[in-house]
Prior knowledge:
Proteasome subunit alpha type 6; Proteasome_sua/b; proteasome; alpha+beta; Ntn_hydrolases_N
Amino acid sequence: MTGMIADSKSQVQRARYEAAQFKYKYGYEMPIDTMCRRGCSMVLIGYDDELGPCVLQGRPAGYYCGYRAVSVGAKQTEANSYLEKKLKKKQDLQHDDVIQLAISCLSSVLSVDFKPTEIEVGVVSADNHKFRKLTEQEIDRHLTAIAEKD
């Protein structure tokens, strides 16, 4: 999330509460698009049993939209342009390629060469539906792969 850390934590806590209430009431996990309708300006990632891995962005006006890739924050226009160009060239990316594209986008837009301790990468995949953060070793492996491509 971008923005005020306290606000972000509050939104995440509220989203978890809403998801728990939904599961208690209906007996199954809340679909990500249902969660997105209840949020404000935030990007959600998750796994939907019908759609697979999903990226959705909710807006304060109350609408939401699904994306193949999206960014938010101060340089979102540049980042979204970068992602559009790269995704037009490659339609079917593998798990590692997606992670490396995200890191490359962030690095390019911010003009920074990251160290594994300077970024966090969260993933959801078809193999593992639960959100998890990559370890520093995994991030380092991806940074090395990016450097070798350049």
